Amino acid sequence: MNAKFNKLHRVVLWLSFLAECALCVPEGKRGAALWLLAAAASSALFRALPEGRLKPRRPSGLTMAAAVIYGVWLAVSFFDRWSQTAVMQSLTARLGLDLGAVMTVISILALAASTPFLLWLGGHLGDAAERLADRVGGSFAVGVLFALEAVLLIYVLQTSCLQDLIPQQAWYFLPALLTMLALMLLLSLLSGRLGRGMCLAAILVTIWGIANHYVLLFHGSPLFLSELANTKTALNVISGYTFLPDETLWKVLLLCPVGLALGKSALYMEKAKRPKVKLGSVLARLGGLAVCIGAAALIFAGTKTLVSWSVSDGLYNYGFLPCAVDDARRRSAPFMEPDGYDAAVEPVTGQAREDDVRPDVILILNETFCDLSDCMDLTEDTDGGYLRSFYDIPGAVYGHAVSPLVGGGTNNSEYELLTGRTSYLLTAPAPFNYLKFSSERGSVVAHLKSLGYVTEAMHSGNAVNYRRVDAYPALGFDYIRLGERNYGDLGEYGARWQLDRNFYRQMYDDYASIGDEPRFLFLLTYQNHGGWEQNDASYDRVHALGDYGDLNDDLDEFLTTMQLSARAFRALTEHFEMVDRPVIVCMVGDHAPSFINNLPMRADQSEYEQEIAKRTVPYVVWSNYGADLSRFPEYTSMFALTPQVLRAAGLPLPDDYQTILAMNRVWPVFTSTGLCMDKAGDVTLYNADDSKYDLIKRYLSIEYRMATEK
Questions:
Q1: DSSP 8-class letter at 335
Q2: Where in the chain do CATH 3.40.720.10 domains reside?
């Protein structure tokens, strides 16, 4: 009887193993060949298996959970892979069956068939782990398990972000490891044992990983610790989504019992060696915690900002934990206290001219809109200049704005334009990623809403870039239109899409749909985004004359897109010329193209002057009702432009805007690096100890006090 039972048991295990292999192997001929190979090899293996190994071991709760989760994960992965194959699609179509239903039945049957083997394997692995713990034991073995668990939990968080264990910049795995070790040591100190700390860490990281995965899936950005302050908002946002289990969820769930098993083994070894917790082991853990925190702090202190325009790029290059720590660090101290800070300084007061008219205000930040002739001797082959349609708009005034950064930094320009604050005090670029905004104060949005304006922000690019999906609501915009899917036909020019002219047409519709209240619309365009070799040369309508080496093709495409933007803006003014409401429009470029540093600057400029030139972009202000535009300067800082637009619109100004205008009359330009340009065009470096910079010093103190609420 036993012989027949053992023979039957061998057959059942063998068939169950083959079912498990069917779930694992890839689709196609290669998968079939691997499955046949596994069938042949396993047949001989199970025949030769000793009776003692054949007997099932009773699996523990952890191994049973791991086996079930692993099996479900394999089944889900099997379903996803084979549902996309042409073989299954054509077969079910030929038989008139539903593909999803067929694959669900097959996956469930394969999972059920593989369960005996998985439980048998889990029982033997658990038994082997216990025997190993009895033989090895000791502090060294516990330390190895502790380190293995740290790597495992890092992998859980990386998996939840759909990233590999080792990031693209492999060096950043070290601070990730130190951070995870510090977390586990802290939990072990709180719980009394390293093993208990490991188990707690496995549970917490699993919960974090699952939440992180779905927040990333629905919201576009990961669940950093700083986001916990926005938990209520996040729950409101995701309440409308449907949560479906996927392969990533099963991976994260599978790794939890593995982590718990490692923690349980470590706890078993600890108790076998030291039944009671001694002071020495507590001090050792405290020392280890201090070393991990200290080493990680030294590494992070010397790193650049890890998350800039794209959170996904940061995760790919540096990994989840380094990005999470960097995010927390930036948010904890986003502003640098200026030299000579005076908390008691008062802003400039005195009311500017106010008109009875409340005009509609349209503010456009145009991606990479830059006139390269402002910084270099450029000639091209158009008749009258490639920006002719821009510079001859009737009634418009023109000038130069100085952007915060060179060849990039859209979000810094956006920040300065919407808040009236300089990037000089920021500790890192891309401020929308780490600043907390108030919808009641500190921005042009809040100010205009206090005057009865309806406000809208529009951008057709990815909503999660620079976390605009969070920043725009925090700034207080009433209506927000973000992401390409929320627009109609955005047009194409060769490989370029999201054209300015089509983007403006969507704005015309939104503008017309607002009621009788005055309106403020902020637009961030996308058309001119780099790189500059997206189109075939046949699409270039403007050609630079001169030899710029490898940059000639880039220049031609760039100049062509500038011409398209110029024509689109002129058409915008012609549209609003026919509108029977008072409208004032300001458009400004956000920064120069990324290749600006590789172009020849004018030789007669000093180093400081060239730095200003590389940041210089054109601005234009136009109205359809004869607004007084005579006070706009030839040069201005980006953060000073919006106060000047509101002054020209005859709107009341807050005290900080009046302070900016007072400073701007003496120092038209103040950059994020501290370069100052006076009315005569002389460029110097800011020095808080020099009394001639007192207006700048006063402004910086007011801004820092407002930004930090001190």
A1: B
A2: 366-653
116-139 confidence digits (pLDDT tens): 777 777 676 666 666 665 565 566
- Name the nearest CA neighbour of 638 among 306, 369, 335: 369
The helix-helix angle for 173-191 and 279-301 (nearest 10°) equals: 150
> pLDDT tens-digit profile of 176-197?
999 999 999 899 888 888 888 9
Please state the length of the chain. Answer: 710
CATH of 366-653, one of 3.40.720.10, 3.40.50.2000, 3.40.50.300, 3.30.1490.20: 3.40.720.10
Distance between CA atoms of residues 461 and 408, nearest Å: 16
Q: Is the peptide bond before 626 cis (omega within 30 degrees of 0)?
A: no
Q: CA angle, corner 500, sides to 496 and 501, nearest 5?
A: 110
Describe the strand order of the beta sheet including 479-482 as a list of residue ranges.
Answer: 479-482, 454-459, 519-524, 360-366, 583-589, 616-623, 397-402, 635-637
Phi, psi angles (nearest 5°) of residue 401: -105, 150
Strands 616-623 and 397-402: antiparallel
For residue 521, give both structure tokens: 């619309």
User: What is this structure's pTM?
Assistant: 0.71
63: nearest Cα among 201, 265, 268: 265
Q: Which two tokens stand for residue 698?
A: 């006063």
Question: Do 361 and 622 meet the contact criterion of CB atoms below 8 Å apart?
Answer: no
